[in-house]
Write a structure and sequence with these properties.
With about 375 residues, the protein is α/β, with parallel strands linked by helices. It folds into two domains: about 1-145, Rossmann fold (3-Layer(aba) Sandwich); about 150-255 and about 290-380, Rna Polymerase Sigma Factor, Chain: A (Orthogonal Bundle). The chain has 17 helices and eleven strands. The strands form two sheets. Strands 4-3-2-1-5-6-7 form a seven-stranded parallel sheet, sandwiched between helices. β10 and β11 (about 250-255) form a beta hairpin. α6 (about 120-135) packs antiparallel against α15 and α16 (about 340-350) crosses α17. The longest helix has 20 residues, at about 360-380. The chain is globular. It binds magnesium ion. The site of magnesium ion has 4 residues, from α7.
Length: about 375
Amino acid sequence: MIGVSILGCTGSIGSQTLEVIGKYPDRLRVVCLAAHKDFSKMAALIQRWRPELVAMVETSAAQRLRPLVTAPVLLGEEGIEAAATHPTAQIVVVAMPTSRVLKATLRALQAGKRVALATKEVMVTGGCLVKEQLTRSGSLIPIDSEHSALFQCLLGENSDGVERLILTASGGPFWSKPLKELEFATVEQALAHPTWKMGPKVTIDSATLMNKGLEILEAQGLFGIPADRIDVLIHPQSIVHSLVEFRDGSVKAQLSVPDMRLPIQYALLYPQRLPSLIRRLNLSEVGSLTFYEPDPYKFPSLALARHAATLGGTMPTVLNAANEVAVAQFLSGRIRFLEIVKIVEATMNRHQPEKDLTLEKIEHYDHWARRIANEEAGKRYS
Ligand code: MG
């Protein structure tokens, strides 16, 4: 039996992870459940999954949860770290959509766990720390569908044979709309993703294409390929999850219907391939697969992310933290859609990146960027 801790169990990836565990009750079991603040959903999950340990980030949520359950409920960052390092967990699913789980991810690796990583913000901000830790202990398998695809395409290959990585993007709801329409895009329109069912943070990131920008940084961190050799193609059907082009001109891709339960199961059961919950891909039913270059004027987020990748150091941390703030401001209706990326850019412009990353440095500039991004957002309140 493989014990699994889930950081972010009440979210979209967390729920789908539990579905996968439910399909393999003889192989996988829930050891720890951790979430941000949804205590009523957590109470129901505890009833169903009987974890050994529960953690809630928000103190008030933990306090409201405690009388409802018998399992021990820890709180704050320490609670998340306890779930990440619990002795009976072999796998830690990291699926809270914030760079704030970087420390818990590093702790899990230090404790020798396999990290199944859905939170791309971890590799974006602390990729080099994660890589460094991986040389000593622990292992990591990405859950992000594009990176799961790249991981699968790169298996058995030498890295010096790789020419470039090609990330596919669904394009979100706006890629084919004129720029004018994006100006007044509502929260509801931005949340209406055409192919993937995901949480609100990543769905908005998909609409701005910042998700793909973050994924360039994530791929650079995971696979050691520099950002200028990582391309992006819009692929509205979301069937080809990413591609690797080799030096001899050969291209490998991984395909399936768009369903996160596949990369989740892959990360949990790797290297085993077992039947999954997803619908089979029928290519004759899909008919055609199409690919387009993203419009750099409509989606400046990609160039910003490449710029951050080139500068390196603390700049990706600043980009990511500013984006988290700007997305939250948009979701709460205080700024307009196109201002999300403008706030990220304005915050980056006020930052001089520092090299020689440490966890403390990353946390310092993460806080700094959140404060500056909130200030920049305040100037734009409509
Ligand atoms: Mg993705």
